[in-house]
């Protein structure tokens, strides 16, 4: 599927794009609010400034994607692959990122207030200047991430039973 087809079908009120392949697609500034892209391959895609508020991206592959300044307010990003993704300036307030893989992700100046970061792999994640106020960071090791200048006030941070942020459910991101 290409960007044009996705936009047209979404405009015609189709919202379920479960498992579609959109590798390297450009959807800059697209309004995809409440779309279902569960298990979709969006690796290396450009979704900068896109509106994905309330979207379901559960188990999607967004590795190395440009998600800068995108709106993910209230989005479902459970078990999503965000390895090396650029989420700088993105709004992830209230988003559910439980068991997501954020290794080497850029979250500089991102808004993660009230987000769920339970059992997330944060190895080498960059939270410089990010807002994590009130975020739930349980069984995730924040010490392996750069939190310089980040707002961590009111975060629920517990590394009890931390398994390095890696869920035993992770097997592969081969497709």
Structural commentary:
- This protein has a two-stranded parallel sheet.
- The chain has one domain: 3 Solenoid (Pectate Lyase C-like).
- The protein is 5% helix and 3% strand.
- It has 175 residues and is largely without helices or strands.
- It contains one helix and two strands.
- It comes from Aphanothece hegewaldii CCALA 016.
List the keywords.
175 residues; little secondary structure; Pectate Lyase C-like; 1 helix; disordered C terminus
- In the CATH hierarchy, the architecture is 3 Solenoid
What Rg do the Cα atoms give?
Answer: 15 Å
What percentage of residues falls in helices of 4 or more residues? under 10%
Shape designation: elongated
Report low-confidence residues grouped into runs of 5 or more: 161-175
> Total number of β-strand segments?
2
Derived structural class: little secondary structure
Can you say what the CATH homologous superfamily is? E3 ubiquitin-protein ligase SopA
| Fraction of residues in β-strands | under 5%
- CATH top level assignment: Mainly Beta
CATH domain topology? Pectate Lyase C-like
Round the mean pLDDT to the nearest integer and report it.
90
* Total DSSP helices: 1
Q: How do the strands line up in the largest sheet?
A: 1-2
Total number of distinct structural domains: 1
Largest beta-sheet characterization: 2 strands, parallel
Distance between the termini: 15 Å
Order of helices and strands: HEE
């Amino acid at each position: 599927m290409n960007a044009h087809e996705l936009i047209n079908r979404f405009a015609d009120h189709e919202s379920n794009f479960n498992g579609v392949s959109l590798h390297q697609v450009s959807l800059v500034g697209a309004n995809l609010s409440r779309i279902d892209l569960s298990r979709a391959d969006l690796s290396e895609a450009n979704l900068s400034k896109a509106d994905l508020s309330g979207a379901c991206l559960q188990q999607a592959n967004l590795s190395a994607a440009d998600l800068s300044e995108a709106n993910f307010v209230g989005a479902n990003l459970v078990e999503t692959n965000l390895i090396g993704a650029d989420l700088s300036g993105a709004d992830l307030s209230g988003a559910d990122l439980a068991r997501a893989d954020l290794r080497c992700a850029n979250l500089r100046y991102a808004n993660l207030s009230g987000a769920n970061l339970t059992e997330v792999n944060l190895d080498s994640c960059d939270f410089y200047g990010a807002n994590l106020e009130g975020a739930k960071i349980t069984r995730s090791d924040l010490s392996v991430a750069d939190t310089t200048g980040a707002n961590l006030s009111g975060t629920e941070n517990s590394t009890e039973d931390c398994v390095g942020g890696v869920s035993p459910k992770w097997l592969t991101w081969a497709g």
